[in-house]
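I hope you will forgive my troubling you with a question about protein structure. The matter concerns a single protein, recorded as an amino acid sequence and a row of backbone structure tokens. Please examine both parts with care and let me know of anything in them that strikes you as inconsistent. Thank you for your consideration; the sequence and its tokens are set out here:
***
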Amino acid sequence: MPAASIALVSSGRSSFVEADALILAREYEVRRLEWSGRDTYRALREVVRASDLVFCWFAGDHAAVAGFVARRHRRPVVLVAGGADVAAQHDIGYGAMAGSWKSRISTRLSIRLADLVLPFSEFSASEILRVRKPRRMEVLYLGVDVNRFAPLGAKEDLAVTAGAITESNLRRKGHATFVEASRKVPGIRFVLAGAVDRSMETDLRSSPPPNLELPGYLSDDELLALYRRAKVYVQASAHEGFGLAVAEAMACGCVPVVTRRGSLPEVVGDTGVYVEYGDADSTAEGIRIALSHPADGARARERVVQRFPIGRRADRLLRLVSDLLAGGR
């Protein structure tokens, strides 16, 4: 008997979307559809009609349209949500629910049309419930490949953060705070890794502190090597639906320095140092404390190994999809 097929619908590719695609491909034929607007509708319709289940990553136009087509053809729908798609961070203008009426409607429709919604943290589940109560919802944490993301070699007095360097992320990811904190701890190397938006490149590179490095975009292997060298990983965010980068860095033995915003306390627990959002002095002090307790990196890794291994997400995801395909809506 041929394997059932799954339509995996997203508005782009990212590491977590690719991870789920690989998991689903273990037992099913996966048909990919990357939504790019109305021009993609016909292809989406054909992919959904030819599949046994629709799996959408993030709420939005693509998930709402896929949900309508799936309803018409009686296909069950799984929606993974919990990031910008359901956020309403008005103080920094972040999230679909802080955006236009069109984005708010798309998010609500995506949730309403899904048979199963999978938030990737308890925090993201709470944000979904503020938008609309799903028919069925189960928290399923993102997963880390703890065999790949593992310590290797000696650690350095190095504080790292990563993420695309855009005007939005200066506030949302706390990049501006990280840069200011580097001025307050001049004896320590700081690395802000990520592709730099062209509109910001001149400002960022014109007068950086001498201890701050801006290497630009790093490949997955280069980022892994950086995590392995660093003693500290900083996530000074205003909002995180999960915080995969900090979890991967923790798995490499970094001591996390984070805010109490979003899902970060769920991920970090008692293994890191907490700082105030937007406060460079607090962040600098948190980095000093973390550097003085490098052994806490082992506890941080153990938390990820125990709570967020990719194998746990894979097993549960495949079981949930199997139940839906068997008619257990």
